[in-house]
Amino acid sequence: MTQTVGDFVVERLHSWGVRKIFGYPGDGINGVFGALRRAEGKIEFIQARHEEMAAFMAAAYAKFTGKLGVCIATSGPGAAHLVTGLYDAKLDHMPVLAIVGQQARTALGGHYQQEIDLPAMLRDVAGAFVQQGTEPAQVRHLIDRAIRIALGGRTVTAIVLPNDLQEESYQEPPRAHGTLHSGVGYHPPMTLPHQDDLRSAADILNDGKKVAMLVGAGALGATDEVIAVADRLGAGCAKALLGRTALPDDLPWVTGSIGLLGTEPSWAMMNECDTLLMVGSGFPYAEFLPKEGQARGVQIDLSPEMLSLRYPMDVNLVGDAAETLRALLPLLKPQTDPGWRKRIAAHTDTWWKTLEQRALQPADPVNPQRVVWELSPRLPDGVIVTSDSGSCANWYARDLKFRRGMMASLSGGLASMGAAVPYAIAAKFAHGDRPVIALVGDGAMQMNNMAELITVAKYWRDWVDHRWIVCVFNNEDLNQVTWEQRVFEGDPKFDASQKIPDVPYHLFAELIGLKGIFCDDPNQLGAAWDEALAADRPVVLEVKTDPEVPPLPPHITLEQALKFGRTVARSDPRQGGMLAGAARQILSSILPGQHGSH
Length: 598
Ligand SMILES: Cc1ncc(C[n+]2csc(CCOP(=O)(O)OP(=O)(O)O)c2C)c(N)n1
Ligand SMILES: [Mg+2]
Prior knowledge:
The protein is of the alpha/beta class. It has helices spanning about 5-15, 30-40, 50-65, 75-90, 120, 140-155, 165, 195-205, 225-235, 265-270, 320-330, 340-360, 370-375, 390-400, 420-430, 440-460, 480-490, 495-500, 505-510, 525-535, 560-570, 575-590; strands at about 20-25, 45, 70-75, 95-100, 130, 155-160, 210-215, 235-240, 255, 275-280, 295-300, 315-320, 385, 405-410, 435-440, 470-475, 515-520, 540-545. The structure holds thiamine diphosphate and magnesium ion.
C-alpha cells in the first residue's frame, strides 16, 4: 500500500521519539487516526473524554517526563476544545505539539461545516509555529519545524491538516526550487553564562549577609546544586508553586511556598533579606519579593524573557539552573555567620507547628487542611501529586511535606480549574510504576474532572502500580472565590454564584468500577488515606469539608482586614460559621500552641 500523508505523519512523529499521543477523534483528522491504527501500536493513542483534557495531559506528560507532549483533535470544535490546555502548556513553558484536523482544502473558505480559521485561532497560543498544510511534500518540514521549535523554545506549536491532504499519497519533496529538505533531531544545549558574569554574580552573593533564594520549576533538576549553593551562602530558600519539589521540605532552611498560597517564613525572609538569588522561576507576584532597593539581586533563567521581570536584578544570567549553580559554587565564599539561617530555620519550625495547629482546629465537619496534613506523612516514596485550582491548592502549597524523589505539579501560570485529574492520568502514562494522588475541589470535579474518571476506569489495569487516588474536597462551594470575594473585595458570599450541588463522588466512582471512600469524620481521615493507599484499584476519596475554613494568605494586610471586617458587618449568609472559622485560624497562627475557641 502506498504511504498516505497520514501514515507519513505517524512515521515522522515516531522518528522524533513520540510514543504517546493524547486526544479525541473526528472526521477532520480521520486520515491520521487511520494511520495510527495501521502503525499497530508504534505510537500509543490515549483517548481522553474531552480535547481540553487531552491537552492538559500533553502538558503534564511534558512536565513529568521532560519530553515533548503531543495532543490531537479534529477540526472545528475539537481544535477549539484544545485551546485552554494548550495555554496551560504555553504559560508553564512546556513543549507541546497540537495536531488538528481541518476541512478539505477544496471546501476551505466556503462557510463549510466545522470550518473555522484554525491558524488564526491558534495564532496566539501556538504563535511560535502554526501552519496549515496544503501539499504532501510540505508536511515533512511542518512536522520537523513544529517539534524542533516546541522543544527548543519550550513552547506550544500546532499543525493544521486538511482531511483530504491526510488521505493523499505522501511525496518526498522533489529536489527543486521552492522545496525544503528538513531532518529529524534536537538536543538541548548546555547553557552557561560567561565566567565574568558568574564572577559579578558571585561578588554580589558573597557580599550578602542575609541571602534569600527563590527556586521554581527551572530548578526541579538542580536539587543538589541548589542545596550546595544555599549551604555555602547560609541562605534560606522559598519555592514557587511549580518548583514545589525542587527541594525537600525536611530541610530546616526551606521556608516552603511563596505568595498568596505561601508561608509566613517565606514572606518574612523576603522582607528581611539583603540579597536575592532567584533560580528558574516566573513567580508572578512582586509584592511577595523584597521591596525595590532593599536587596541586591541575581537571577538565573534559561529564558532571557523571564529575567528582571518581577525584581530589578543586578546580574541577569541566562543559563541552565544546575550547570550555572555548579559553575557558580567555586566562586562563592562560605558564610561564616550562621545567624540569618538559624533565624529562618526557627521561624520555619514554628510555622510547621502553626500549620499543624491550623489543621487540627475543629471544623464542620472536616477541616480541609487536615485532609492534606494527614496525607503528608503517608505520601508513598516516588509519589506524583497533582492539585486543581481552588482552595485545595493552598493546602497543596503549604501543608504537604515533600521528600526527595517525589514529583508534583498543577496548572501554574494559567491556574485553570479542571487540570488535576488529566494531570494525574498523564502522570501514570509518564511513570506507570509510581503512585499518583490528585487533590481536587468539588467545583473542579463537576467541571470536567469527573468525566475524566471514565478515562481512569478505561486504562487503570494497564498501569503497573494501581495506586491512583483522587481526593475530592466536597464543600458545596466554589470556596477559593468565596474567600477571594470576602478578603480582597470585601463582598459577602454570593450564593447564586458560589454554591454548588452536593454530588456523591465516591458513589460515582463505584458505579464505574473504581473504589469509593467517603469520610466526614476528621478522626477517620488517617484510616481513609491508609485504605485508599492500600486499594487494589483507583480510588475516589470524598471528604466532606468545611467551606468556612479560610485559605488565608500568609499575611493579611490592614486593608484586607478592614475589608474583611466590613464583609462581616454586612450580612454574609455564613456569618457565624465563617467568623468562627476565621477566628480559629487567625488565633492559631498568632498563638501557636493555643486552640481557638470553637
Ligand atoms: C477554568 C476556570 N474557571 C474559573 C476559575 C476561577 N476559580 C478559581 S478557583 C475557583 C473555585 C474552585 O472551586 P472548587 O473546585 O469547588 O474548589 P474550592 O475552592 O471550593 O476548594 C474558581 C471558580 C478558574 N481558575 N479556572
Ligand atoms: Mg468547592
